[in-house]
Amino acid sequence: MVMGSSPAQTAPPETDDDDQYTDVESVHSDNEEDHEDYRKGGYHPVAIGDRLGDGRYIIVRKLGWGHFSTVWLARDTILNAHVALKIVKSAKDFTQSALEEIKLLDKIKKTNPESPGYQYVAQLLHHFWHTGPNGKHVCMAFEVLGESLLSLIKRYNYRGIPQSIVKRISKQIIQGLDYLHRECGVIHTDLKPENVLVWIPNVEEYLQQETASVLEQIAVTAEPEPTVSTAGMSNSRRKRLRRKKKKKEEKQAKEAKEAKEKEENNDNTNNTNEDLENKVSSLTLTDDAKNTKIKTSVLDFTATASETEGSTQAFDQIVVKIADLGNACWVDGDYTHIIQTRQYRSPEVLVGQKWTDRADMWSMACLVFELLTGDFLFDPRPGQKFNKDDDHLAQIIELMRVVPRSLTTGGEFSSEFFNRKGELRHIKKLRYRRLRDVLHDSFLMPPAEADSVSSFLSPMLEVDMTKRLSAGEMLNHAWLRDI
User: Fold this and answer.
1) Whole-angstrom Cα distance, residue 21 to residue 31?
2) What is the Cβ-side half-sphere exposure of residue 246, based on CA atoms within 13 angstroms?
3) pLDDT for residue 365 is more than 90
4) What is the rounded average pLDDT of the residues 336-345?
């Protein structure tokens, strides 16, 4: 939802830092990591069949990559299960970030497994060091989860997810946030649909079938083919190598699929697998790496919009988990730096005010609105004489109709956006709309539903963060009582 704003005089310096919180694919046309980063301080070269962690983990296939790491589906030979194994670049800065991340993840894992919200936060299973030709790498093993809520939004063609499903998802996320904030003392700082993943029951059963032929092939073949360094190669040769590699991977995938289908026919397991296929679109990971993009899916199934719309019942028991804590921090810090992806960014962050765990609650409201409508609550755009931050603040004021003094004077950048009267400096004409009217008029939500949804979102959208309700308080809201 973009509520228009009119330009005025000159704009303040752009204070935006969107790129840090935006998942950006590689600049390479084939969407693979830069092979020149396979060097000292960079990525660790990995081949299918490699064993890491003193032989505990067998690499099955690649899941994704990012500036921070590569991520692989691996078989845990001790637990007889699959994990998403993140292998961090070996340079000092990456290593230090990974170690800080592990401290947070260990705290989350050990604080209180009996807490109701514990099950709704993705967990780090194991971490270890691996020494390779490019240095010493931090490795982290995570549980393997399903698609993100963004994928679910897309399944419904951006027309909104049924309210009964959104209520269930919302309660679980808020329980997870309550655990993070109140019990662990952790602020997520980047809550959005991409960072909430669907838990898939019995996923291990399917994975074992899917990867059995791959593991059998590993067992009978010679030493796995190593990753080829492309440093010093011409661009044309590098492209030929990648095309050859891609064809080989496609052939292996086809053979694995044929083997799986043959096994299904022999064992009469079609019904079980079809049920699981309907629940799973793609397999991803609990991605705590910054800017990691999932390149390939393990469970490569897609449901059409019509199939999804006709199977609301299949999602009635959906379970989700908060993931990607790569940007998380402790609640007792004194923070004013930019956090959050643009569309989910709180007003106190925009003006450079000290922020708290209530910033996550603002993001939560934006996330719920997006699940219900398929659209952003706030989607600011720059104008000729104002920047994104100006428009973002204008959209917030248009919707919430309040401009607390803490916002106009309490932030490092407040004076750049507001004059002494508490008015926006660079945008003069505002178009005010109530949240319930937006839900009813723009998204055709029945009046009673619009009222109840507005009642639920508004406490999390308090512009004055000191008045914004906590996760624990939001769990008592009437909108969640029937869940």
Assistant:
1) 19
2) 11
3) yes
4) 97
CA distance linking residue 104 with residue 121, whole number of Å: 12
**Range 184-189 average pLDDT:** 98
Instruction: Identify which has the larger pLDDT, 240 or 353.
Output: 353
Q: What is the 3-state secondary structure (H, E, C) of the chain?
A: CCCCCCECCCCCCCCCCHHHHCCCCCCCCCCCCCHHHCCCCCCCCCCCCCEECCCCEEEEEEEEECCCEEEEEEEECCCCEEEEEEEECCCHHHHHHHHHHHHHHHHHHHCCCCCCCHHHECCEEEEEEEEECCEEEEEEEECEECCEHHHHHHHCCCCCCCHHHHHHHHHHHHHHHHHHHHHHCEECCCCCHHHEEEECCCHHHHHHHHHHHHHHHHHHCCCCCCCCCCCCCCHHHHHHHHHHHHHHHHHHHHHHHHHHHHHHHHHCCHHHHHHHHHHCCCCEECCCCCCCEECCCCCCCCCCHHHHHCCHHHHCCCEEEECCCCCCEECCCCECCCCCCHHHCCHHHHCCCCECCHHHHHHHHHHHHHHHHCCCCCCCCCCCCCCHHHHHHHHHHHHHCCCCHHHHHCCCCHHHHECCCCCECCECCCCCCCHHHHHHHHCCCCHHHHHHHHHHHHHHHCCCHHHCCCHHHHCCCHHHCCC
- Categorize the per-residue pLDDT at 200 as very low, low, confident or very high, splitting at 50, 70 and 90: confident
Q: Which residues are catalytic?
A: 190
Is residue 26 predicted with pLDDT exceeding 70? no
Q: What is the pTM of this model?
A: 0.77
Sign of dihedral through CA atoms 313, 315, 319, 322? Answer: negative
Q: CA-CA distance, 462 to 358, in Å (whole number)?
A: 10
Backbone angle region of 21, left / alpha / beta, with phi > 0 → left and psi within -120 to 50 → alpha: alpha
Distance, in Å, from the CA atom of 228 to the CA atom of 473, rounded to the nearest integer, reads: 54
Nearest to 5 by CA among 401, 439, 386: 386
Domains detected in the chain: 1-17+345-483 (1.10.510.10)
